[in-house]
Design brief:
Strand content: 5-15%
Number of domains: 2
Oligomer: single chain
CATH architecture of the largest domain: 3-Layer(aba) Sandwich
Structural class: alpha/beta
Number of strands: 9
Order of helices and strands: EHEHEHEHEHHEHEHEHEH
Largest sheet: 5 strands, parallel
Distance between the termini: 34 Å
Strand order of the largest sheet: 1-5-4-2-3
Shape: globular
Number of helices: 10
Helix content: 25-40%
């Protein structure tokens, strides 16, 4: 079925690591309010050969009102990081976290797609699937050989605040329902959502094992209207929705990187509450 190769399960990854020495693995585990947590988790144990992909330092630029809490890094900076990780189009890349992709494997997957990499996959079930499956775990760091890749970034995958404000695209909000409805806002300047947006919490696309739902359930959960723009609090879990469209083989929504954190930083922008 189209798009199914976006995901990879733990047994297949174990085979790849044994049989394909050119497989690159990125550990994108993170915690939104603890910038050091991802590195600690990686140090405590990771998939053999996995390199830590830091959400705040390597998958984001410093926060700003215009860019939100996790702006995209400048392309040249991210390209240099990809070379440091030893990534080139000749290799398959597998990314994982421990939240089904939402923190921040789907973000790393999307950024590699943005950079034009042809073979990027997310470990379905993430770290728990690997750990609980009894596969090898290591704590040491590897020293990859730097690549010479010069990525070609596709900015057509990105939606700006002005494009969101035009209101001519279906807006998909990946945050939890209580934040979408404005009942609870622990981080950003205002509570609520962008008017007209649909709420599809990233967690609703996963089963109890943090694996993606089957195709029929995903197809029922995701609107097929186009064009679409995905957002969340800061452009991280929004990539989970984009990944779900890729799993289905459908055209991908564009990412609004600033998301609610950028939108709500300007009090003149409209805010909606309720369902």
């Amino acid at each position: 079925m189209p798009g199914t190769d976006v995901l990879i399960d733990a047994p297949t990854l174990a085979d790849w690591l044994a049989e394909r020495p050119n497989t690159v693995v990125l550990d994108a585990r993170a915690r939104l309010q603890d910038a050091e947590a991802g590195c600690r988790l990686w140090q405590d144990g990771h998939i053999p050969g996995a390199q830590h992909a830091d959400m705040d330092r390597e998958l984001s630029a410093p926060p700003s009102n215009q860019g939100g809490r996790h702006p995209l890094p400048e392309p040249a900076r991210f390209a240099a990081q990809l070379r440091t990780w030893g990534i080139s189009p000749r290799q398959s890349v597998v990314v994982y976290d421990d939240a089904g992709g939402a923190l921040a494997a789907a973000r790393a997957w999307w950024m590699l797609r943005w950079a034009g990499h042809p073979s990027v996959h997310v470990l379905d079930g993430g770290w728990p699937a690997w750990r609980d499956g009894g596969y090898p775990i290591e704590t040491s760091a590897c020293e990859p050989t730097a690549s010479d890749w010069q990525p070609m970034f596709d900015d057509d995958l990105i939606a700006s605040t002005d494009e969101v404000a035009r209101g001519d695209a279906v807006l998909l909000d990946a945050r939890a329902g209580e934040r979408f409805r404005g009942e609870h806002e622990p981080i950003d300047p205002a509570a609520g959502h962008i008017p007209g947006a649909l709420n599809i919490p990233a967690s609703s696309l996963l089963n109890a094992e943090s694996c993606f739902l089957g195709h029929a359930e995903l197809a029922e959960a995701l609107p097929d209207a186009a064009p679409r723009i995905s957002y969340c609090g800061s452009g991280v879990s929004a990539c989970q929705l984009i990944l779900a469209y890729a799993i289905l083989g459908r055209p991908l929504p564009r990412l609004y990187p600033g998301s609610w954190s950028a939108w709500s930083s300007d009090p003149s922008r409209p805010v909606a509450t309720g369902p």
